[in-house]
Amino acid sequence: DDVQLHLEQYRNSCMVEFIPESHRRDKELFDFFNAVFPGQVKRAEVLLNATKLTKLIAERQTYIEKYEELYAQHFHANQRYRRKMDNLQQEDVGVCSYV
């Protein structure tokens, strides 16, 4: 029964924080606790709190969009400038006479 399994897991679970880098994989964590509590550990899982990472990814996306908008504005302003310069150069071609 799934409910019974979840209830048993809940009752027999503990949360460990500040795990050393060397033990931040399921197997290494299991091996450590199995050495401390031989035969008593059924499973060990490393769960990551990705809240901060999610916020950083969203912030990064915001900066990317701002950069793209500024780049597009700069690119189009540069194109307008070049067209104006091309038009001025074409208008300057002609014959000048002095009296």
Automatic annotation (TrEMBL):
Annotated coiled-coil segments of the chain: 53-91
InterPro entries in the record: CSC1/OSCA1-like_cyt
Keyword list, A-Z: Coiled coil
Taxonomic superkingdom: Eukaryota
Protein name (record): CSC1/OSCA1-like cytosolic domain-containing protein
Family matches, as Pfam families: PHM7_cyt
CSC1/OSCA1-like cytosolic domain ranges (all copies): 13-81
